[in-house]
Every structure is written in structure tokens, then in C-alpha cells.
């Protein structure tokens, strides 16, 4: 079973999110949207379709990465979330939940240092 197939997103918090977003826009040319980030489009091999990597800055102090205390979270693309979460549980990893939405299936696990890791199975065709 393949596990991680790519990076689906990089999310981090900032003390002054609007100013940091503006800096990335002005100095690195990142097209930061009103929602706080951007989506970098890319193409995979013809058999797997196209995809994207989300990059996003949010205000510091929210608990979106809880139970981790880290101000960041990496989202990894996976092919089969349910099978991977089962394997991680069997290996003794601390899986902290999962959910499905219109954006695909999401699952979360804590790494050995307590960082929240997001696993994402995109919807079919994305």
C-alpha cells in the first residue's frame, strides 16, 4: 500500500497574519487570496490527474492544530485514507480522528513530538 503520495498543503500561524500575507505577496509574488492563502496547481502523470498544494497563513492563537502546540501543520495526500489509518493504529500511532467532506477524506495523527499531521484523500478526479 502506498502511504503518502505528496504534500496537499502547508498551514501555519502568524502573530500578524495580514502583514505576513502581504509580505509574501509583495516579496515572493504569492497570490494570497482573501481566505488567507493560495493553491499552487500542478500536474501529475496522465494516469493520476492534476492536483494542487494549498499554502495558508492563519492568525496565531487559534486551536485549529490542537492538540498540537505547534504553529504549523503539514497536510499529506494519500491514496486510501481508511487503510492507512488502520495501518497506523495497528502500528501503535496516535490517530486522533477522521472526517469526510466535499473536499475529500481527512484524518489526523500525532507524530512522536506531538505535531498534528493531516492526511488527505482527495475526491475522485482531483
Describe this structure in words.
- Pfam families: Glyoxalase.
- The chain has helices at residues 17-28, 81-90; strands at 4-14, 37-43, 50-59, 72-78, 94-101, 104-110, 116-121.
- The chain has 126 residues and is of the alpha/beta class.
- A 7-stranded mixed sheet has the order 2-3-1-4-7-6-5.
- Strand 6 and strand 7 form a beta hairpin.
- The protein is globular.
- 16% of the residues are buried.
- The model has no long low-confidence stretch (mean pLDDT 90).
CATH C-level name: Alpha Beta
Helix-strand category? alpha/beta
- Helix residue percentage: 10-25%
Order the strands across the largest sheet as they lie in space.
2-3-1-4-7-6-5
User: Rough shape?
Assistant: globular
Describe this structure in a few short sentences.
With about 130 residues, the chain is α/β, with parallel strands linked by helices.
Topology of helices and strands:
Layout: E1 4-14, H1 17-28, E2 37-43, E3 50-59, E4 72-78, H2 81-90, E5 94-101, E6 104-110, E7 116-121
Features:
globular; Anthracycline_SecMetBiosynth; 17% helix; 44% strand; alpha/beta; 126 residues; 7-stranded mixed β-sheet; VOC family protein; Glyas_Fos-R_dOase_dom; 2,3-Dihydroxybiphenyl 1,2-Dioxygenase, domain 1
Amino acid at each position: 500500500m502506498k502511504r503518502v503520495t505528496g504534500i496537499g498543503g502547508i498551514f501555519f500561524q502568524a502573530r500578524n497574519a495580514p502583514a505576513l500575507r502581504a509580505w509574501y505577496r509583495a516579496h515572493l509574488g504569492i497570490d494570497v487570496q482573501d481566505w488567507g492563502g493560495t493553491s499552487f496547481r500542478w500536474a501529475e502523470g496522465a494516469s493520476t490527474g492534476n492536483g494542487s498544494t494549498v499554502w495558508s497563513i492563519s492568525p496565531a492563537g487559534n486551536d485549529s492544530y490542537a492538540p498540537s502546540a505547534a504553529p504549523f501543520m503539514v497536510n499529506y495526500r494519500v491514496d486510501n485514507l481508511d487503510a492507512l489509518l488502520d495501518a497506523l493504529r495497528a502500528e501503535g500511532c496516535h490517530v486522533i480522528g477522521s472526517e469526510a467532506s466535499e473536499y475529500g477524506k481527512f484524518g489526523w495523527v500525532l507524530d512522536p513530538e506531538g505535531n498534528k499531521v493531516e492526511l488527505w484523500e482527495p475526491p475522485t478526479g482531483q
